[in-house]
Write a structure and sequence with these properties.
Elements: E1 4-8, H1 15-18, E2 32-35, E3 48-51, E4 54-57, H2 62-71, E5 75-83, H3 89-95, E6 110-113, E7 123-124, H4 134-139, E8 145-151, E9 168-170, H5 176-184, E10 186-191, H6 194-202, E11 206-209, E12 224-225, H7 233-238, H8 245-263
Parallel strand pairs: 1-2, 1-3, 3-5, 4-5, 5-6, 6-7, 8-9, 8-10, 10-11, 11-12
């Protein structure tokens, strides 16, 4: 039996969590796959454990990370995960800054993190979902709408009944293609979800973000932020489309894969 194991938040009601783990895009030797919330998932001292992606660096996941730390796998690898050290919207909006790392991943042998900062504390590795070839297809689509709202399913920005006909979607479910079809159909995406910002940026769309947790401040290619809840023309004028982000993100993931496979028994 292989000693390679993968852990991620195996939640098929959250499309970002569902499509973030690297085993969906890269070849590995046979491995056990588990949900980070599953206390029955066994970890042995001889294991190579790859965790992520997803926003697993926060207080909700701390007990699960502590359990994993105590089990002391031979090698623990983090791939493309994020941190929400601050999840208090009032506190975040007051300071407009936060600790982007916390101490959640300090015990991990190899940290590839989707958090970008200057200086950079750990190796920057964007979420592996960028490896889906669907991004190339939908990046080429011409927008058919000006503005679309992409909600966090638990913290909606805009309900369909109040949208005045503007397109509205959210991060619920597991259908990546549906989400990319929506995001690519709009010139501007207004969102409060990590993957709403990330995927729309990969697609070359202009993004306005309503930040309610600190992980939304950790992008290498930042959106335009709406801090006061007033979505106005000035914000749309400030929003920009970045070039080459998809290619760069994929390159960094391939480099991380090559680095890990040259150092550890993964394939």
């Amino acid at each position: 039996m292989s000693n390679l194991k993968f852990l991620f938040r195996a939640d098929n009601t959250n499309v970002g969590d569902w499509w973030c783990p690297p085993f969906k895009y890269f070849p590995f030797k046979p491995a056990a796959i588990g949900d980070i919330l599953d206390p029955q998932f066994t970890i042995d001292k001889s294991d190579i454990l790859i965790m992520g992606g997803g926003g697993i660096g926060n207080e909700f996941f701390r007990p699960h990370l502590s359990r994993i730390e105590k089990l002391k796998a031979q090698t623990t690898i983090l791939w493309g995960s994020g941190v929400d050290a601050v999840s208090d919207q009032t506190k975040l909006l007051t300071s407009k800054q936060a600790d982007l790392y916390g101490d959640y991943f300090d015990f991990i042998t190899e940290v590839g993190i989707r958090v970008f900062s200057s200086p950079q504390r750990f190796k920057y590795v964007p979420c592996a979902s960028c490896m889906s070839n669907l991004f190339f297809e939908y990046r080429e689509k011409k927008p058919t709408a000006s503005i679309g709202f992409y909600n966090h399913k638990r913290v909606p920005l805009m309900k369909q009944e109040y949208s005045n006909g503007l397109p509205v979607s959210d991060n619920g479910g597991d259908n990546l293609e549906d989400k990319l079809r929506f995001l690519s159909s709009c010139e501007y995406i207004v969102t409060n979800t990590y993957h709403g910002v990330y995927w729309a940026t990969l697609l070359g769309r202009k993004v306005i973000c309503f930040p309610f947790k600190s992980g939304l401040l950790s992008f290498k290619y930042p959106p335009t932020y709406c801090w006061d809840g007033n979505l106005n023309e000035e914000l749309f004028n400030q929003a920009i489309s970045y070039k080459g982000v998809l290619e760069e993100s994929r390159k960094l993931n391939v480099e991380f894969y090559n680095y890990l496979t040259s150092k550890y028994d993964l394939v």
